[in-house]
Amino acid sequence: MNNLAVALVQTAIDPNKNKTLEMFLHLIAQAHADGAQLVCLPELHMSPYFPITENLAHFDLAESIPGPTTEALSKIAKKLNIVIVSSIFERRAAGLYHNTAVVIEKDGSIAGMYRKMHIPDDPGFYEKYYFTPGDLGFEPIKTSVGNLGILVCWDQWYPEAARIMALNGADLLIYPTAIGWHKDSAAGYEKDKDAWQIIQRSHAIANGLPVVVINRVGFEPDPNGQLNGTQFWGHSFVCGSQGEILVEAQEDPKILHAQLDFKQTELTRQCWPFLRDRRIDAYQEILARYR
Question: How many helices (H) and strands (E) does the chain have?
Answer without folding.
Answer: 5, 17
